[in-house]
Design goal:
The complex is a heterodimer of chains A (243) and B (98). Chain A is mainly α and 243 residues long. Chain A has helices at 3-6, 27-51, 57-72, 88-95, 97-115, 123-148, 152-181, 187-219, 226-242; strands at 75-77, 81-83. Chain B has helices at 2-6, 8-23, 33-40, 66-97.
Chain lengths: 243, 98
């Protein structure tokens, strides 16, 4: 039973359905979001096909597995509310933004199709908000912060933490705009409420992202090189041919 | 040690399994961000149920113990997304080589 229709909020055992169910967005809004999401995913498949290093394939599987598992763990935040990891910045820092987007889409699709977590009509919007905005936007933020703080080697973990926080807040604001455009609720109220609670949840996102990257830094720092391995190969090849 | 380094993905998968077994049963049952906002702004009732259900609310139907049910559901999900992602990666890599 979905928590959304049973009125059993907060009293269920175990893990409840968490993503937006069908009905939260109008049909036209949901359809537009599906279209945008499919276009971005098609581009992500193309980019991943071009740039993915073969050695990164198991890492894609591990990231999907970890993000799925971590999303089941709702941590307590203020005022009887909980939050869980999204994981887009974590995936993008390790795999690059496009492969990271595919990992997020896979997790959200399985949650919706197999675990009835998130509606099927609004799945395009759920993938866009949690898997695309958070991953691509969060990664752009991460790269900008790394430049600002003197390079990825030095700034990786703090930059990822800040980007992870920002990704959660921006994703929640995107959802607020879609809810308002659907006529579900008032725009300013939705922006305020979604931004406010996710500003706190984002702290959890930042902590988990930094802990996971810290664990990799301590145990297998060479994994950080996988993201750019093939891209680098591709970009040096023409120069080598010219020389 | 060398063996551990080569099979690092097993370690990663192990971490995911550990999160499911140890942390998922302890998850807060309080409404998450969106759900809390939906309740306070009064649009929670708009939520519709899905037309079918396989493992709803991360609990396997038929397993009465809530922790065991959550853990089995989590392990199914972890295995499923791992295989799907590795499969997709393998397909993309094969297409590139072809």
């Amino acid at each position: 039973m979905s928590a959304f229709t049973k009125g059993s909020i907060g009293v269920g055992d175990g893990v409840e359905a968490l993503h937006a169910p069908d009905g939260f967005l109008s049909f036209p809004m949901a359809a537009v979001m599906w279209l945008i999401t499919l276009l971005v995913l098609a581009y992500a498949v193309r980019q991943t096909n071009r740039t993915l290093d073969d050695r990164a394939i198991p890492l894609m599987g591990v990231m999907a597995a970890f993000i799925f598992a971590a999303q089941m763990f709702n941590f307590q935040v203020i005022g009887g509310t909980s939050g869980h990891l999204l994981g887009g910045v974590l995936a993008a820092v390790l795999l690059g933004p496009w492969a990271g987007t595919l990992v997020m889409a896979c997790v959200i699709a399985v949650q919706g199709l197999v675990f009835q977590d998130g509606g099927l009509v609004v799945m395009g919007a759920n993938i866009f908000n949690m898997g695309i905005i958070g991953t691509l936007g969060g990664y752009a933020c991460y790269r900008a912060l790394c430049r600002l703080f003197g390079g990825e080697q030095r700034a990786r973990i703090p930059a990822a933490g800040i980007a992870a926080w920002a990704a959660v807040v921006v994703a929640s604001l995107a959802a607020a705009v879609e809810l308002a455009l659907s006529g579900t609720t008032d725009l300013s109220l939705a922006l305020l409420a979604m931004g406010g609670v996710h500003g706190v949840i984002g702290i959890g996102e930042a902590l988990i992202t930094m802990a996971a990257l810290g664990f990799i830094q301590a145990t297998r720092p060479d994994l950080f090189a996988l993201r750019d391995a093939r891209t680098r190969l591709g970009s040096t090849a023409p120069a080598a041919a010219a020389a | 040690m060398e063996h551990l380094r080569r099979s690092w993905w097993l370690v990663g998968l192990g971490v995911a399994v550990l999160v499911v077994v140890v942390l998922a049963p302890l998850a807060s049952a309080d409404p998450d961000g969106l759900e809390a906002v939906a309740a306070s702004l009064g649009f929670l009732e708009r939520g519709q149920e899905q037309p079918y259900s396989i493992i709803p609310d991360y609990a396997v139907p038929g397993i009465d113990d809530p922790s065991a049910s959550t853990i089995v559901a989590g392990l199914v999900g972890v295995g499923l997304v791992f295989l799907l992602m590795v499969g997709l990666g393998w397909l993309l890599a094969r297409r590139r080589r072809a």
